[in-house]
Design brief:
Blueprint: H1 7-21, H2 34-41, E1 56-61, E2 67-70, E3 73-76, E4 85-90, E5 94-99, E6 102-108, E7 116-117, H3 124-129, H4 133-136, H5 138-141, H6 147-156, H7 162-176, H8 178-191, H9 196-207, H10 232-239
């Protein structure tokens, strides 16, 4: 059987063979080849209403370590789906995990054996309870973070309760994005003081909602005669001499 280094090479070879076969004589219309006859038929064919999503689906149970096993490899799912049944859809290039009608995880498919493919974000809720796992947990040891975030992580882990401080940063970054955390870490490194509260303050400042635009009041609601402050009325009120 023919062997190919990648699916791209296989698809290129298949396209070439299709072009070669299309030059053969049409089995019915002998005066035309297959390609010429297809050009005539093409306007009469029904258009595709949707792309073809080809995959093999199987029901699996995620392990207590938030993993599903597909073809001798293990892929992570969000921690809240540990020990629960999920639907795994395997295509040529991706592994997608679906539960309750929604996609909960997606990984590039691996074709080796005994590989562990983890998305660290799937284990963030575990870090909330066990921040120490940030140091030695398999999903986090080789986490490919931007250089600025990695530097802040290394400094925080040398400080007391630094692992919990970094987890707090990750929890905020899950909502606002990793790019904002990268900028906040860069600002902290520039000022030379790196601690969890400083980076968190920079992160919240960067992601704070913009101040509302000052409203322009219509002319009917604007004061024509502004009231004057008269403190003597307060003195009259205290003395019981205030008269309406």
């Amino acid at each position: 059987m023919a062997r190919f280094a990648s699916f791209a090479a296989l698809n290129e070879w298949l396209a070439l063979r299709c072009r070669e076969l299309s030059q053969r004589e049409h089995p019915v219309e002998r005066s035309q080849n297959i390609a010429e006859h297809f050009i005539r038929e093409q306007p009469l064919l029904r258009a595709f209403s949707a792309t073809f999503d080809g995959y093999l689906e199987q029901m699996l149970r995620a392990s207590s370590t938030c993993l599903v096993r597909v073809d001798r490899n293990r892929y992570s799912v969000p921690a809240e789906w540990a020990d629960k049944a999920v639907s795994v859809r395997s295509s040529a290039t991706a592994i997608r995990v679906v539960a309750e009608g929604a996609q909960i995880a997606e990984h590039a498919r691996r074709f080796g054996r005994d590989q562990l493919i983890c998305d660290p974000w799937h284990y963030l809720s575990v870090l909330e309870k066990k921040p120490g796992a940030l140091r030695n947990g398999a999903p986090f040891v080789e986490w490919d973070l931007p250089a600025q975030i990695q530097q802040v992580r290394e400094r925080l882990l040398k400080q007391p309760r630094g692992d919990r401080a970094f987890v707090e940063l990750l929890l905020v970054a899950r909502e606002v994005g990793l790019d904002a955390l990268q900028v906040a870490c860069e600002l902290a490194l520039e000022c030379g003081v790196v601690n969890g509260s400083l980076v968190l303050n920079e992160l919240r400042r960067l992601t704070a909602p913009a101040r509302p635009v000052q409203l322009e009041l219509p002319a009917q609601l604007q004061l024509r005669i502004e009231p004057l402050a008269d403190c003597s009325r307060y003195e009259q009120l205290r003395s019981g001499q205030y008269v309406h």
